[in-house]
Specification:
mainly beta; 101 residues; single chain; 0% helix
């Protein structure tokens, strides 16, 4: 998984930006890290936006990556609990789809 780390401060993100939004002087540099992480938080979506109504109910989780100080918002394929280990299964329409390990 690609993350973007500022070359001037400790800011890290999963999305690229032109300049660092934290220090406003640094440039974000891409790094490859393992997509494996731990469920930090989650919620079950029962009433989904129209574009996702066909897959409801589903679970959205905040995954803390093991190799970087960054969290990823992901859709889960199974029910999860806080503290569960998870790994990236695939990307779909720009969304991270994780599976419980």
């Amino acid at each position: 998984m690609k993350i973007f780390k500022c070359n001037s401060c400790d800011y890290v993100s999963v999305s690229s930006k032109y300049t660092c939004p934290q220090c406003r002087t640094g440039k974000l540099e891409a790094q490859e890290v393992s997509p494996i992480g731990t469920v930090f938080s989650f919620t079950d979506i029962h009433i989904a936006p129209a574009e996702f109504a066909d897959i409801a109910p589903y679970t959205i989780a905040l995954i803390q990556l093991d190799e970087a100080n960054v969290k990823v918002t992901a859709r889960m394929d199974d029910p999860v609990q806080i503290g569960d280990k998870a790994d990236l299964d695939k990307m779909e329409n720009g969304a991270y789809l994780y599976t419980k390990l």
